[in-house]
Structures are given as C-alpha cells and as structure tokens.
Amino acid sequence: MTPPDALVRVLRGAVDLHCHSGPSPFPRELTHVEAAEDGDRLEMRAILVKSHHHITVMDLLAMRDGLAKVGTRAFGGIALNSQVGGINPYAVAMALRMGGRAVWFPTFSSGRHIACHPEGDGFPTAAVPVPSAQVDFTDDAGELIPEVYDVLDHVIEAGALLSGGHNTPELITQLFTAAKERGVRRMVINHPNFVIGADPEQCLELVGLGAYVEHEWGMYDPQGYRKWDPKQLMDWIERIGPEHTVLASDLGQAGRPRPVDALLRVAAALLDLGLPERDLQRMVRDNPSFLLGLDD
C-alpha cells in the first residue's frame, strides 16, 4: 500500500509502542527488522517491540546489523509473565540495563486475562506450546508484594516506560499509585476497552496519576481483526483528551495487516471524523516519543 503524500506528512515521525513482530512462540507476520522497514514507509521514528514470552532486547541485539540499515529505530522490553519468572526484578534489571525501554506488568499471565481467555496457553494461536501460569503481584492482604517496588526502582533508574499489562483497572490503579509515589514518570494503560475493562472515568483517574491511555489502531482498522468503529475511538479521545492519549498498533501477528497499512486507514478515518491533524500527531508522535524517552 503506497502511503498518500498528505498522510505521510501528518504521520512522519510516528512511534509505535505496541508492535508484535517476531520471533515469538506466537506466529508473526514480521520480524523486528521487517517491522522497522515497514515503519520507514512513513519515516517513523521508532517502534517498541513486545513479546508476551521473552525479553525482546536480546532479539534486537542479535538483529543489530539488519536494524542498522533502517531509519526507524527499534526498542525492546520485558513482559512480566510466567516465562520470565513473573515479577522478577533480576530479569527487569538485566533487560533495562541491556537497553530495554519498557516493562509490561503481567499480560496473558494476569488473572484478568486468564478469566477473559480460559482457553489457556494457546492464546491466540501458539506456534510453539509454552506452559504458563498466573502471576499475581499482590499478597493475600491485597498489598503489593515487595518485588513490585524493586521493579519500580529499576524502571526509575532506567527512565523506562511502565505498562499496567492486562490487569484489572483496580490493580493498575494500585500499581500506578505506588509508581507515582516512587517517582516513575512514564506510565501507560493499554487497550482499556479490551480485556482490561476500564471505563473512561477509571482511565481519567489513571491520567490523574500521570498515566497515558493507549488505544490500538489495529482494533479500529476496517480491514483488521476487530473492526471497531473509529467513532468509538473518537469518543475516547474526546473524553480523555489527545494530550493524554496514545495510539499504537498491537499488530505484527500472522495473518493480520501490517502496522503501517492499518495506521494509514485509521488515521484517515479519524481525520475524516474531524480530528485535527495536530491532535493526531500528538497521539502517534509526541506522546509516544516522550513515553519511550526519545528526547531525554
């Protein structure tokens, strides 16, 4: 798909904070190098590649030669699912000190995700069967376990991004409250209306703690896998405000559109609905650039 010149101008410098390129135990449409090359079609500034299973920083280091030829930079991080030992400060320290930029609290190992997807380890479709277990980060009294504070300290040391993962709004609020008190500067709640089940009022509470609300453009793509109405996304943007909103792809899975193709369609739809170009740039370029620490 050839990007229209007008959209290239608006979207130039975009940053995708939720790219599911590979390798991964789940089937992937793109490698990390191919995802960065895809970003070059829009002169994207960067992508953040995410795996539910392993530290993506190591993938990127192994692909260093290929990535050096691409204009779009690629960054990695760690998701605190059972495959890395859950809330594991040692794995977090290694990932961030090796150049990682993000820590996602449990995604498919969260109790909330498991309740929404009881089919288990095969979510969404496993190319390689990988055993997993639920990861909790509160104790029997409902208090955050000590390891959480160690993880937060590593996030602060690295100036990294903290994601609430696929947890309930209440748990994410508890986590982000502690993170703010500790001194974390960059926080995001991913796809609040998918799995997590957060409403706008709960998201505004998180915004009050300094968090950004991330919506996935892959879910609003008319050729995508969910095909939600872009008007619904506009409603969220108007309620939360573009200054507190981030748009990211959540794409890279086998059989789904390439991130840039989906962004072009969703961006065009939002502009047609009356979204100002400046607000779109804020959500796809400025806010994610801050969250990834690109201007520090």
TrEMBL record:
Gene3D superfamilies: Metal-dependent hydrolases. InterPro entries: DUF6282 (IPR046249), Metal_Hydrolase (IPR032466). It comes from the Bacteria. Pfam families: DUF6282. This is Amidohydrolase family protein. It comes from Actinophytocola algeriensis.
